[in-house]
Structures are given as C-alpha cells and as structure tokens.
Amino acid sequence: MMQQLEFDQIEGIPLPSQNSVFFGHEVIIHFLQKMRRDNRLHHALLFTGPKGTGKATLAFHLTWNILASTSENFILPDLSSTLWRTISRKAHPDMRHVMRGYDTKAGKFHKTITVEDIRCVANFLQKAPSKGGWRVIIIDSADDMNCHADNALLKMLEEPPDKTLFILIFHKMCRLSPTIQSRCQSIIFKPLGDIQMQQALTVVAGTIGFNAEHLHTSDLLRHSSGSVRRAILILTSGGLEIARIIDKAFFSPVFPVTSVHQLASMLSGRNTTVQFNFFLDYLTGFLAKRACKAVFSRKKRQAILLSHLWQEIQHDTTEVLAYGLDKKQFIIVTLQKVYSLLHEEV
Predict the structure, then answer these.
(1) CA of residue 122 relative to chain centroid, distance
(2) From CA 289, how far away is CA 218, in angstroms rounded?
(3) Taking a C-beta distance cutoff of 8 angstroms, is the pair 101, 4 a contact?
(4) What is the enclosing helix (H) or strand (E) of 44?
C-alpha cells in the first residue's frame, strides 16, 4: 500500500503518527493525565506553540492512551500492539486525522483545509464508535483552515457528541479564531530546552546522515529555538552556513555585493525550496528580534521601521511565491533593504 503524502513532512523523518518517542513537556503530560484520571478532560484541546516542539506527536500518543483505555498513567504507545499500528497508519475506525489534502492530478497540496475536509469529520461523527468508546479527531494544523472550515468546525465544537475529543494543533495563535479558542482548552507548548533538543537529535542523527556528536553545537541549538523540526531543516539545508553569511553581510562595513549575489544564486536554484524557506524564516526572525530589542531599549523609530520592513518582506514573499517572480532579485533587494536600515540605525 502506497504511503499517503503529508503536508510539510521531512523526507526520512518519522511522521508524528509513527513517532514512538517523546521528549520534554512533563507538565503538560501530568496535566492531561490528571484531567483524564479525574474524568475532566475537555472535549476540545488546543495544542499551540512553535512548530517542531512535539504537539502532533503528543496528540497521537494521547489518542493511543484514550483508545487503549489507559487511565492510571500516561504511557508511551505499545509499538507491538495492533491498536498502535492502526493509529500510526491512520486506519483506526474511531479516529480521524485532518490535514491539507494532496491533489494527485495537480501534484501538489491544497492551499487550505477546506470545508469539505471538515464535513468529512461531521459524517464520521454520525456513525457510532466501533466499540462504543471514544472517538478522536486531530486537526493538523488548524492554522490551515479557511473561514468556511472554521465555521463548520465551530458548529461541532459547540455541540460535541459524547466521548469525542478534538485536538486542534495551532502553530501561530494570531491565526486563531477567538470564537474557536473560546470553545477549547488551550495547552501551550514552550520551546524545548537544550537537554531535550540534544536527546531528540541524538535519536534522529543516523536518519538524517549526521553523527550524534555533530548535532550538539551551540550555534545549532541557538538557531533551532527549541524546535527539533527547525534543527533538522537547518542541518539538511545548510542553514548554519546561510545564517553565517547573512550575519556577516549585515555587519560588514560595506555591503558585500559578491557574497550576497552568491547566496542569492544558491537559494534560487532548482530544488532549493527548503533552503529558501530557511532563509526567509531566519531573516524575518532576525528582524523580529531586532524590533523587540528596539522596543525594550525605547527606540521607537527603530522598532517601527523594523516592523514595517518585516511586513514588507512578508508581502513581497507572498507575491514572489504566488506569481513565480525572480527569487534571486528578491533576495538581493531584500538583503540590501535590511542592510541599509541596520546601518541607518547605527
């Protein structure tokens, strides 16, 4: 049977539904365990926090605990069990995993989770559970729902069937409908600490072709911001070198035309989507941190200019990706704008 593609999956890395290990977030696990033991688990949980911190993995582990009827302790899935195998293949009759669908004819993923995707959940809930027990719906990520999907989901959250658990995974709270948030219990996932990051990276080291001792550098941990996913993408995309070139360019006394053009050529070639995305993520993160620093330093003008440039880059990025514009020119012009603003501040 051909494995179904999943949006945002990283080649060679186990999907959250197949990930048998979990690191950190002991407080969250203790909270979920207590709520289940006291029979007070909310019917809709909102797992929110940065990508790559374990939200989806914990959602599937919680699903296993609920469908396996474990109650005393929150335990890791039994990999040898038929139950875990059906959950990991998304084949269990009492669970649904909703993501952006894949269009096989167009060869690409849909841009959103649509109202049709949510209606499939409504149809699923009209059927009785296979063994009269619980049903679990995981929406990953709920950031991707369009407004019609939002409205369709809201109706189900307002009148949930008995023994039904919704787990909504959100990466960015700014995209969350306040009405949906009010129907859920929010559980915030903080970035992982260095120890948990090192443990997780040691597990995946061989999978991504790196020796474990090469994964624990301070630069990698600093740029990963507590996200295992981000660390993997940095390693597999040459992200540390991209970050080094950008930092060196911004703080050079003269704008380094040659190195910027070389970087732009590298990031705009074929099969460089991961590298280009890391560039965008690193650049916008850099501006956001500088803006926050300016605010705390009471440098209002700097903060406003940095914020406006951040928004401008977001807008330009959308147009470049939507209309297939020249990435190389976009990268060069963008870095020139940031360089000029940084040196104007000085």
Answers:
(1) 25
(2) 19
(3) no
(4) strand 44-48
**DSSP H or E stretch at residue 164:** strand 164-170
- The contacts of residue 190 (CB under 8 Å, 6+ apart) are 25, 49, 53, 226
Amino acid symbol at 187: I
Cis peptide before 141 (omega within 30 of 0): yes
Give pLDDT tens digits for 23-70.
Answer: 999 999 999 999 998 989 999 999 999 999 999 999 999 999 999 987
Distance CA 182, CA 76 (A): 30
Which residues does 127 contact at the CB level (< 8 Å), separation at least 6? none
Range in 106-120, 175-189, 202-216 the model is least confident about: 202-216
Q: Which two tokens stand for residue 192?
A: 């992982």
Residue 1 has pLDDT above 50, yes or no: no
Q: How far apart are CA 263 and CA 251, in angstroms?
A: 16
Alpha helices in the chain (DSSP H): 26-37, 55-67, 82-88, 115-125, 147-158, 178-182, 194-204, 218-224, 228-237, 239-250, 257-267, 273-296, 300-323, 327-345
> How many angstroms separate the CA atoms of 306 and 62, rounded?
41
Q: 167 - beta bridge partners?
A: 45, 138
Which residues touch 288 (CB under 8 Å, ≥6 apart)? 310
Q: Rounded to whole angstroms, what are the CA distances from 341 to 140, 303, 346?
A: 38, 11, 9
Under 8 Å CB-to-CB from 32, ≥6 apart: which residues?
41, 62, 74, 187
The C-alpha atoms of residue 311 and residue 316 are separated, in whole angstroms, by 9
What is the rounded distance in angstroms from the CA atom of residue 68 to the CA atom of residue 75? 10
Closest CA to 143 of 196, 203, 105, 99: 99
**Lookup result for tokens 């959950």:** 87
Q: For 106-115, what is the mean pLDDT? A: 88
